[in-house]
From TrEMBL:
Its cofactor is Mn(2+); Mg(2+). Transiently phosphorylated on a His residue during the reaction cycle. Phosphorylation strongly increases the affinity for substrates and increases the rate of nicotinate D-ribonucleotide production. Dephosphorylation regenerates the low-affinity form of the enzyme, leading to product release. This is Nicotinate phosphoribosyltransferase. GO terms for biological process: NAD+ biosynthetic process via the salvage pathway. It catalyses: 5-phospho-alpha-D-ribose 1-diphosphate + nicotinate + ATP + H2O = nicotinate beta-D-ribonucleotide + ADP + phosphate + diphosphate.
């Protein structure tokens, strides 16, 4: 498959390749106005070059769960690789900030991200609250301008990837997951992003043709009810000849072959009483579709009646294709009692395999759609069903159960001085200073706890005991002897610092990494109902420093 230039999702990218075409909406102006007003104030005060460190993180896992999957890193790196104001953008800023001095706009015209460094967790990783997904270092005015676009690019990407991973978890590894959400997504950008990140989160394919071209995602699709109802009868099918699969012969009257098989099915003892006369417009539609796409015949069978018409008509066409060496793919159910209908359809296929001696016919793929979500798939699993693939759209791509992840972007250090943001709500107190983050694994190979330490602290080592403390609750602490230690933050954008840079992997490798990371989590952290919270901690030294800085910065009240 050829490489893709627009978003480079199919091959590893160099910095030079990242400096290429981008989404025209993602420009330096994709930020909030207050980022520019702050930048002007920094510049006016002579502070715009102060070296700042910001953490991008979230405070609570989405969907009532206890895990999140990180997405959007590549888009953030692509943004800063191309971060440069155009003349027309400077002119627009002048028009909306008429009282600002000319020197400020001259400054904006010259800035880029060559003095910015970005450290991040690998995209597709399982992540948790409070742990920085990204650490951004650089001139405070420039990094401040990156806040809104970075949060925007990470929020939805991580949310929909997590949603996809949750659907994968409830469906199980053996089922095929199809993303059908383009028509219900929030605009074209939302549709493209959803297809990309649903694939990274564990879906197998998409119906979105543009996403297939851009990212190399496998494409899947059948036909609609409109296609079925557009036919009236078999007589209107113009082409009736079909060349055999091996090219050795031609069936001049494929329609007649289909009709012959339908008659055999009606007379079959094992199918007696299950159906009578089927809908002929549906039979014509299936026959026409098979003539056009004999290698990939999958029929939507619920336009009229699934078991009395759709399934028998599909089987007649599938058996006719089999006579010519083709193997039909299966059916799609888009309404009704999906558990019951899938079981009945499976019985029907099995009866045909047994009565007519057609190997594998009983294993036809059954795909279910119709506004599916986590809850309905879980319910189907509990009822018992014969569905092989789930086509999921609205609830997946719109993240119907939760509108946003809630990422934040907080200053933790400036000019080597740690900073803290305080709040009466302890969950909103930031964890100060530049930090290193590690994941500690136990004897069974599962992740036990994430720990943050100060930049200059000795990192944890496998086999050595370390005290892990809750950042804010004094009594919550535990010793851990990790069997394996993984450092989470890696340099993905070194700027001009000449530090080694992590390579941005292709989308398929991000997907593989996501699946591997999910397997490394304990099942009780992943379950839908009452999941066990995953522990996020700080070192003893960082704990002491947080509370020292907290007391130092908080004003002391006075009782009168």
């Amino acid at each position: 498959m050829a490489s893709v230039d627009l978003n480079g999702a199919m091959e590893e990218r160099t910095v030079e390749e990242l400096r290429g075409p981008t989404n025209p909406m993602v420009s330096p102006l994709l930020t909030d106005l207050y980022q520019f007003t702050m930048a002007y104030a920094y510049w006016k005060a002579g502070k715009h070059l102060d070296r700042a460190v910001f953490d991008l993180f979230f405070r609570k896992n989405p969907f009532g769960g206890e895990f999140t999957v990180f997405g959007g890193l590549e888009e953030c790196i692509r943004l800063i690789a191309n971060f440069k104001f155009k003349d027309e953008e400077i002119s627009f800023l002048r028009s909306i900030m008429p009282t600002c001095e000319d020197g400020f706009f001259d400054y904006l015209r010259e800035i880029d991200c060559s003095d910015v460094e970005v450290y991040a967790i690998s995209e597709g990783s399982v992540v948790f609250p409070k742990i920085p997904l990204m650490r951004i270092e650089g001139p405070v005015a420039v990094v401040q301008l990156l806040e809104t676009p970075f949060v925007n690019l990470v929020n939805y990407s991580s949310l929909v990837t997590t949603n996809a991973a949750r659907h994968r978890f409830v469906a199980g590894k053996s089922k095929t997951l199809l993303e059908f959400g383009l028509r219900r997504a929030q605009g074209p950008d939302g549709g493209i992003s959803a297809s990309r990140y649903c694939y990274m989160g564990g879906f197998d394919s998409t119906s979105n043709v543009a996403a297939g071209r851009l990212f190399g995602i496998p494409l899947r699709g059948t036909h609609s009810h409109a296609f079925v109802s557009s036919f009236m009868c078999l007589d209107e099918i113009a082409s009736k000849a079909l060349r055999s699969h091996d090219g050795s012969s031609t069936c001049e009257n494929f329609v007649g072959l289909v009709q012959s098989w339908l008659h055999k099915l009606q007379l079959a003892d094992s199918l007696s009483g299950l159906f009578g006369e089927t809908n002929q417009s549906e039979l014509a539609a299936f026959t026409s579709y098979a003539l056009a796409l004999p290698h990939n015949f999958l029929a939507l069978v619920d336009t009229y009646d699934v078991m009395r018409s759709g399934v028998p008509n599909f089987c007649a066409v599938a058996l006719a294709l089999g006579d010519l060496g083709y193997k039909a793919t299966g059916i799609r159910l888009d309404s009704g009692d999906l558990a019951y209908l899938s079981i009945e359809a499976r019985k029907f296929f099995g009866a045909i395999e047994k009565e007519f001696g057609v190997p594998g016919f009983g294993k036809m793929i059954i795909t279910a759609s119709n506004d599916l979500n986590e809850e309905t798939i879980d319910a189907l699993n509990k009822q018992g069903h014969e569905v092989d693939a789930f086509g999921i759209g609205t609830y997946l791509v719109t993240c119907y159960a939760q509108a946003a992840l809630g990422c934040v972007f907080k200053l933790v250090e400036i000019n080597n001085q740690p900073r803290i943001k305080l709040s009466e709500d302890v969950t909103k107190v930031s964890i100060p200073c530049k930090k290193r983050c590690f994941r500690l694994y136990g004897k069974e190979g599962y992740a036990l706890v994430d720990i943050m330490i100060g930049q200059n602290e000795t990192p944890p080592k496998a086999g050595e005991r370390i005290l892990c403390r809750h950042p804010f609750i004094e009594s919550k602490r535990a010793y851990v002897v990790p069997q394996r230690v993984e450092e989470l933050l890696k340099c993905y954008w070194p700027g001009d610092s000449h530090k080694p840079r992590e390579v941005l992997p292709p989308l398929q490798k991000m997907r593989d990494h996501c699946m591997d990371h999910l397997d490394q989590m304990r099942p009780d952290h992943m379950r839908r109902l009452n999941p066990t919270p995953y522990k996020v901690s700080v070192s003893a030294k960082l704990y002491d420093f947080i509370h020292y800085l907290w007391l130092n910065e908080a004003p002391v009240g006075e009782l009168l």
